[in-house]
Amino acid sequence: MNAFLTGVIFLVAFTATGNCIECIHCYSADGPDCSGEAKSCAEGVTTCQTLTVLLKEDGVDTHKVVKFCGTGEEANSIYWEASLTTSYQLETHSCQTDKCNEEPPQFTPSDNTPNGVKCLHCLEDHSTECNTEEIIECTGDLNQCLFITGSVCHDGADYYTCAHRLCTNVANAEQHPFYLDKYIHKLEITDGINLE
């Protein structure tokens, strides 16, 4: 009887393990890809994910990549924001087969064609306000204006409080990838400004 139960437990464990998807797990803070080992995801997880960040600042590109087991049936998504000198792009890619996130991620090229939307533009370090009369012309899919303040600026060593006004591609604050982040003090998405 004990041998039978041991065999059943082994079979159930083997079957449960066999149903788990395997995903590559890795992180890179300084390159457009990362490599790591395949790991079995938790039972019920059916998605591998790759998150990519591309920060363009004063002509310098910085990439970050994270690959891991997903948490559900996540859809692919892309978030963009841009100022006169900086753009930030966060992409999420999901797939549903073993080690499907192993290949180098593909970064979606930005569309720099003006779209007619105009936003106020400013950056104030060590402040929660950012009032300006400077205007930025939005491009591509960036058709909304973003105001964000909180501990979101980085000086190479630490985060500090600042305020931004720039263009974005999300329709409302709840769609912003950091909407629930405790370091965000205020986040507003508004329509483009009317200059008439």
TrEMBL record:
Domain UPAR/Ly6 residue range list: 21-102, 116-169
Chief place where the protein resides: secreted
CDD domains per the UniProt record, alphabetical: TFP (cd00117)
Entry-linked SUPFAM superfamilies: Snake toxin-like (SSF57302)
Domain of life: Eukaryota
Signal peptide: 1-20
GO CC field: extracellular region
Keywords of the record: Secreted, Signal
InterPro entries listed in its UniProt record: CD59_antigen_CS (IPR018363), CNF-like_PLA2_Inhibitor (IPR050918), LY6_UPA_recep-like (IPR016054), Snake_toxin-like_sf (IPR045860)
Subcellular location: Secreted
KW ATP-binding (keyword) present: no
Pfam families assigned to the protein according to its UniProt record, in alphabetical order: UPAR_LY6 (PF00021)
The protein's name: Sodefrin-like factor
Biological source species: Aneides ferreus
Gene from which this protein is expressed: SPF1
